[in-house]
Design brief:
The longest helix has about 35 residues. The strands form 12 sheets. Strands 24, 28, 32, 33, 34, 35, 36 and 37 form an 8-stranded mixed sheet that branches. About 40% of the residues lie in helices and about 15% in strands.
Length: about 1200
């Protein structure tokens, strides 16, 4: 095994592009062959690439190259050579990529490979034969690398050669002073025959390039140049002889016909062209010199190149050929906005990326691959690689990376500081670890074990495990895992006291093993020790059969806990309670009886304490509607209420529905050739993704057909449809989901499983910066995570371990501290291993918990686009299709800096708005998103340099989607913004367009600028409101002043009651101070109360600017709704039927007519439902684009029709990927 870190192909290429041999000594290391020194967050940052280094722009030398062909895979005899030169520093690059078999290594890495999708290169050796003994840097360099994959034979040889023309040569050829001297010398030699004008700087380069071109293609009569040739003499004279001879020119003295002697030069005589893989010859030298001359010529302005003899063609970049040869052209990247993609600069990547041998735009899956390869080849530095992965996971807020980090941490992996801390815990110095034996460390552990109380034993074991993992010592790790030897230690590990009964032992065992399955062995040992000490047959039965005899009857507290309901003090929403019960039953059908019992207990408790109905049918009786004129509902199959809302919305979009039902002719052809150049979401689409997308379309087609023909009022979406819609491609893996709420597996990357438990209390949450993070609401009791959506805060939330504050008007409810339990906590549902359907639903539920609302719709849009043939391409190669035409608008961002205006266009399928913690109309929230924003110009050296930007819609899609941020973080806590967004039935888009039918671009811009002036006033008022309502005391400023007045008054009363005259040390008295402070508090209260009205008035003024802008009306079609807290709740959707002119509420399996429009357009006072997504459709196309009802019900065969998944026997060979069935 290698002990040297490696680099993925993109990292090697990035280092190659910035490696400059001329400055290697000053840089202190070789950027190409070494990794950067470990990053220390406590030290000052170090520039990744010295500023002197050339940022190479390599251009192709095709006649010296063997280039890879697009779409053609290398074979066992393939060797590529990409010959290039940098058009800036003129150094030459020879990149050889050798795919020939090497012993047992016969299978190269490929992008289609799940295990080794990209090369990971290890530096092997340098050819030092050409190194200069005096340390000069301008000498050839040769380096060899090999791929670290076990079966990959690829070797890479990099040769860098200095320019054929030195800087002194260029000066000699082009310096005007030298040219003048040659011209004057030529006039002395030739007299009147000499040219009347001196040569231009570009002439020497042009003439020399022409001579070299003639030598490569020799023609009779062009091989000889007399020295007295006027142009040659004035351009080269006699002081360029060394340059000419170095290129292979020869000179001689010949006898002319008249007997006189003449000095002549002969062009080089290079050998014929050979195969590019053969040894370089003198021909290579001449070709290189020509490329350098062409580059130098092109640097002159075109006006100075007029009259040049040699037609110069611009060389083509070789970067794509290099990437294709290294196998990293189109590698999997993280989703980025168009602006982010354009501004990507790997030179400025965080040092942790370079430490992992990766680059900053790697997808999460590729980052995990890079981490796994680094650990595999350089185990000694695994602590640093783990530190880098953890920091990147936090920075990206990536669910996938954070789960992997937690899994690794649960296995004992630690970063450098944690290892150092672990050694210190045992009184050892980590710097001397190489001198310490495993037995000595274990002896220190046992010695400490005898001296510490039971409560600290777990900490000792964790620290020992950390050391064992860092040293890769199986002996130490085994000792750490089996450190429980006594009854006291067993109780301590289970977090129990000696007086707690066996029921608590069983409960804590279940909780700990569910939270971290890797602890099952040690948990079992702990229970065995307790059972032996207590002589408890019940605990023995529990370990053997999973149950204990004589389990007690369930009480109300256990019922609430079993359904994950933390707050018993307030009335529960009936729909949320019913959805919670259904979710738990769907995830664990074997425990349905227990969940039903808990549900009934909660219903009775709610009736007794909150006057709600006592049975499970909360609310009025369910209405029935004629099946042939009424849409069907979609049953909830596990945290899928938002997905059901999305599916109902998509069904009403008529052209999309027709494409799904009858669009076989629009499906993409499933061949490698057909998908070449196909791009969706700025990413090249591969064949496997098209296949998966078309699977989704087929599943969606089955559902839509069933929604049309079902003889019932509801249908059940198949698990596979939900899984494909919810699971992003980069999270699909090879292992089945862990049952009973544990995190589902994400397969293996480089031999390491990608899975993991939830983080320990506070860790994931505290590691995230929380200022300014927004989110729409989650779909259940776990806050969602995402690495792509701009509308979700990507953190782990363990609701039992963190405080969540929900704002309701001006009231803030703080969590109350629960009383100590009087009986054991409920036992979580036991794992289920036999039912295939249950496992799929469990995995689906886990995936649904990680999906942000808007992200699900984006996933579906991507799937539909990937499945369809493109109708054409856009300016950036993006595929044009039905989805783009229906939902995507062209948004132009205008940036201004120092009088310079730049415009950037990007596709966008939604607008993201923030209520801003106050009730406001939709126009006001949208105005914020399209308003003028002042930016700091970080690139300017001038102080206080300002830049600004704003956006407008250049081409508006017929369907406009507006997403609403609902989850915000303040002071380290998550809160739901329950502010009301007031909706209009008609939204006029005019104010957000570049121009309208009535207003020109200039006229509309003038109105915008008036609007921006009012918005500046509005922001000033908002800032003042923040000063008045937010203080460090968690009080309003007025309340704080009022409290201070009371304190001053108390001080004065205390001073008046003092019987001793303190003279000089007496407290100064200000008799009227308390009253003045109270008066000021009243003024502040009054000011705060008037601010909302002032802001509302400004909103009205802003809106009035565009009152007459009514050229582009859009009708309200759908509203996505959420009721619940910051960490969970329930979704449904309101959809307007333009044909029947009625609103319907689609709530999972129930679809009812909306009888009171206040449910949509107004907001309740307590526990209000809030909009999270709003859909408008162009008014003149509502009948063409929407159709809410399409029903052709068949004859009823049963009370309810269920879309069942296939029998498990049909899928015995199917791989389970995160709970998603995938055919091999």
């Amino acid at each position: 095994m290698s002990t040297r870190p490696g680099k993925t192909a993109p990292r090697l290429l990035q280092d190659l592009l910035t490696y400059d041999p001329r400055h290697e000594e000053r840089a202190g290391r070789n950027l190409l062959t070494t990794s950067p020194p470990p990053f220390d967050p406590d030290d000052d940052p170090v520039v990744a690439v010295p500023f002197r280094n050339c940022r190479h722009i390599f251009m192709a030398k095709n006649e010296q190259s063997v280039l890879p062909k697009a779409g053609e895979d290398p074979c066992h005899e393939t060797v590529y050579r990409i010959a290039s030169f940098c058009q800036q520093c003129r150094w030459h690059l020879d990149l050889m990529v050798d795919f020939r078999d090497n012993g047992s290594k016969t299978s190269p890495c490929r992008s289609s490979s799940a295990d080794f999708p990209i090369h990971h290169f290890i530096y092997e050796q340098e050819d030092t034969s050409q190194r200069d003994p005096f340390g000069r840097q301008n000498v050839p360099r040769s380096y060899r690398f090999h791929c670290s994959a076990p079966t990959c034979p690829v070797e890479v040889r990099i040769r860098l050669l200095p320019p054929r023309f030195s800087d002194q040569h260029i000066t000699l050829l082009t310096n005007r002073m030298h040219l003048r001297k040659r011209w004057e010398a030529a006039r002395q030699i030739s007299g009147d025959r000499a040219d009347a004008h001196m040569a231009r700087s570009v002439d020497a380069l042009d003439f020399l390039s022409t001579y070299l071109q003639d030598s490569l293609s020799p023609q009779k009569g062009k091989a000889r140049i007399p020295l007295l040739n006027r142009k040659f003499l004035k351009t080269f004279g006699r002081d360029c002889d060394d340059i000419l001879k170095g290129l292979g020119f020869t000179n001689a003295v010949e006898i002319e016909d008249d007997g006189s002697h003449a000095e002549v030069w002969y062009l080089p005589r290079p050998p014929p062209a050979r195969h590019p893989l053969d040894t370089d010859t003198a021909r290579t030298l001449i070709e290189d010199a020509r490329y350098e001359l062409i580059t130098l010529i092109l640097k002159y302005p075109e006006s100075e190149r007029l009259g040049a003899r040699n037609a110069v063609s611009t060389p083509q970049p070789s970067i794509n050929d290099i990437q294709r040869a290294l196998g990293c052209l189109g590698y999997d990247k993280k989703p980025m906005t168009r602006t982010e993609a354009r501004s990507t600069n790997h030179e400025e990547d965080h040092p942790y990326y370079a430490g992992l041998g990766a680059v900053g735009d790697f997808s999460d899956a590729l980052l995990l691959f890079a981490y796994a390869r680094q650990v595999a080849v350089d185990l000694a530095n695994s602590m640093y690689y783990f530190e880098a992965l953890r920091a990147i996971a936090v920075g990206r807020k990536s669910n996938m990376l954070e789960e992997q980090v937690q899994m690794l941490a649960s296995q004992g992996q630690a970063d450098r500081k944690e290892v150092e801390k672990a050694y210190r815990w045992f009184g050892l110095d980590e710097r001397h670890s190489s001198l310490l034996s495993d037995d000595f460390i274990i002896g220190q552990f046992k010695a400490r074990l005898a001296d510490i109380p039971p409560a600290q034993v777990e900490a000792a074991r964790n620290n020992l495990r950390t050391i064992g993992y860092a040293r890769q010592s199986e002996k130490i790790q085994n000792e750490a895992s089996n450190a429980i030897e006594t009854y006291e230690q067993a109780l301590s590990w289970l977090d129990l006291d000696p007086g707690q009964p066996d029921d608590f032992v069983m409960t804590m065992y279940t909780l700990k093993t569910n939270e971290n399955p890797s602890t099952k062995d040690i948990a079992t040992k702990a229970v065995q020790i307790v059972a032996e000490h207590r002589k408890s047959q019940r605990l023995v039965d529990f370990l053997e059969r999973g149950v204990m005899e004589g389990d007690t009857e369930m009480d109300v507290a256990e019922a609430y806990a079993l359904l994950g309901i933390q707050d018993r003090a307030n009335a529960l929403d009936a729909e949320v309670l019913e959805a919670t019960r259904a979710t738990y039953v769907a995830s664990n059908p074997e425990s349905a009886e227990k969940y039903e019992k808990a549900y009934q207990l909660i219903c009775r408790d709610q009736k007794d304490n909150h006057k709600t109905p006592a049975n499970h049918d909360f609310g009025p009786p369910r209405k029935t509607y004629p099946l042939n004129i009424w849409p069907v509902g979609c049953q909830n199959i596990g945290n899928t209420c938002y997905l059901n809302s999305v599916l109902q919305f998509l069904f009403t979009i008529k052209p999309l529905r027709e494409m799904v039902l009858n669009g076989d002719d629009q499906m993409q052809e499933l061949t490698e050739e057909a998908v070449v150049g196909k791009r969706v979401g700025r990413t090249a689409v591969k064949l496997d993704k098209v296949e998966k997308a078309q699977q989704f379309v087929l599943e969606l087609r089955k559902l839509f057909r069933h929604m049309i023909t079902a003889p019932t009022d509801s249908v059940r979406p198949e698990t596979k449809l939900a899984a494909l819609a919810l699971a992003k491609s980069e999270t699909i893996a090879d292992k089945p989901a862990e049952p009973n709420g544990t995190h589902s597996g994400l397969g293996e990357i480089g031999g390491l499983p990608v899975a993991g438990p939830m983080p320990p209390p506070g860790t994931a949450y505290e590691n995230h910066a929380t200022d300014g993070i927004d989110s729409v609401m989650g779909d259940d009791d776990v806050a969602k995570k995402s690495d792509t959506s701009s509308t979700v805060a990507e953190i782990d939330v363990d609701e039992d371990r963190m405080e969540v504050v929900v704002t309701d008007g001006d009231q803030t409810k703080a969590p109350s501290k629960p009383e100590p339990p009087s009986r054991p906590p409920p036992v979580p549902p036991r794992p289920q291993t036999s039912a295939q359907v249950s496992a799929s639903i469990k995995a689906l539920e886990a995936v649904a918990q990680q999906q942000d609302a808007a992200e699900i719709l984006n996933n579906i849009f991507d799937l539909l686009s990937c499945a369809m043939k493109g109708e054409g391409t856009m300016r950036d190669g993006e595929q044009v299709d039905l989805i783009k035409r229906l939902f995507f608008s062209d948004i132009t961002t205008v940036r201004k800096l120092k009088g310079v205006t730049a415009r950037n266009m990007a596709l966008q399928d939604n607008h993201l708005i923030s209520p801003g913690n106050r009730n406001r109309p939709l126009y006001a929230a949208l105005d914020d998103e399209f308003s003028l924003i002042e930016l700091e110009d970080v690139t300017s050296k001038e102080e206080n340099a300002k830049a600004s930007k704003y956006e407008y819609i250049d081409v508006a899609s017929p369907i406009q989607i507006v997403n609403v941020r609902r989850l915000v973080f303040e002071g380290g806590r998550s809160k739901k913004d329950e502010s009301h967004v007031a909706l209009d039935e008609v939204l006029y888009l005019d104010r957000y367009l570049n121009k309208t039918k009535s207003l020109s671009e200039e006229e509309l811009q003038e109105r915008r600028e008036r609007q921006w002036q009012l918005q500046r006033r509005l922001k000033a008022l908002e800032a003042r409101k923040a000063q008045l309502t937010e203080t460090e005391l968690k009080l309003s400023l007025a309340d704080a002043v009022d409290g201070a007045a009371a304190f001053v008054e108390d001080l004065q009363k205390a001073a008046e009651g003092t019987l001793i005259d303190l003279d000089e040390n007496s407290i100064p008295t200000y008799p009227d101070l308390a009253n003045q402070m109270r008066d000021r508090a009243v003024q502040l209260h009054k000011e705060a109360s008037t601010l909302d009205e002032q802001m509302k008035e400004i909103d009205i003024q802003i809106n009035s600017i565009f009152t007459d802008c009514t050229d582009h009306p859009y009708r309200l079609h759908a509203v996505f709704m959420h009721r619940g807290s910051a960490t969970g709740g329930h979704y449904w959707i309101f959809i307007y039927d333009f044909q029947k002119r009625i609103w319907r509420k689609y709530n999972d399996d129930r679809v009812d007519e909306v009888e009171d429009l206040k449910d949509i357009f107004e907001q309740e006072e307590k526990n209000p439902a809030t909009s999270t997504g709003i859909v408008y459709v162009r008014a003149d196309q509502v009948d063409k684009l929407t159709e809410a009802v399409r029903r052709e019900p068949g004859e009823a065969g049963s009370v309810e029709v269920e879309m069942k998944d296939a029998d498990a026997s049909e899928y015995q060979d199917v791989q389970i990927i995160n709970g998603i069935e995938e055919m091999p």
